[in-house]
What does this fold into?
Amino acid sequence: MNGVPFFSLARQHAEIGRDLTAAADRVIRSGSLILGSELARFEAQFAAYCGVRRAIGVGNGLDALTLILRALGIGPGDEVIVPGHTFIATWLAVTQTGATIVPVDIELSTYNIDPAATAAAITSKTRAIIAVHLYGRLAAIEPLAELAARHGVALVEDAAQAHGAMWRGARAGSFGAAAAFSFYPTKNLGALGDGGAVTTNDTMLADRIQRLRNYGSVTKYIHEEAGVNSRLDEMQAAFLTEKLSFLDQKNARRREIADQYTRGLSDLPGLILPSTADDADAVWHLYVVRSAGRTALQDALARDSIGALVHYPLPPHRQPAYARTALANARLPSSDLAGEQVLSLPMWPEMTDDEVVLVVDAVRRATLQTRPSAAG
It folds into this structure.
């Protein structure tokens, strides 16, 4: 066995190839490619899975977030609180509405938004808090929901990496005013292309998002407002329906792999593993370790043909897109440290136990080899 890739879509799809082919044939034979029965079917099933009244399929995760904010009436003059360590889409959604981004730092133990920092950032202009469930672990839902309710602001979930994650029996996508999901191919529930969805229990909000995604129209050629073209197409909806039936099984395998990593790596000096507190219902989109000698560790793993990636090396406030704004001066030390030290190990449910052992052995070997660099 030669190395372990960071992810293998080919192996994933080989397992369910017949199901996907049957789904594609079904769509082709139907002659309906946009806003048809496949989308309606997936929306109903995904809503039921998340435990909410409505799911609205859209073009991608960024659109899902942006449409939620637009449907909530958020725009110029409003403030939206976001975490400092996240994929830039969380921030871009706020930017696209014209609202003001208010970044707050994260808790290094979970890499999720810090409730205490969130509380300190709320002002009279705050309209929403975006809770990102990063790496498959839910953000601190209870304190964030209490904060949102006390101040009369919307709690929006960015659940792009948390399909199926739970807290006290409720799934990601059911806690806030609405939640945004991405179905990018490498997600826990991934399409064979781009895709996204919004989940919510608010019927009026769902109706508006459904209208906004389709040029602001419910009745053909009648456009009630200036919407966009962001529709989950029939082919992707059909693929997602097939994959949804395997999601819990695949998430269970991710937990097994995470347990094997934790057992195999917990004694290594200088390597900080993900916290295992309250993680029983995490879905381990990524298994992220932290090392002061990250570059040397990643290079050593590469020499052993072990795929390891950085999510995310440059926090949004350090990105060129925000270099000429006040956001570039944000003081977010934990987010900066995460950007400097995090490293994602291979995490995909079709990995074999032998491959997990290969990764563990390579990380152990590389960590011990690079320890002097980490100490320096």
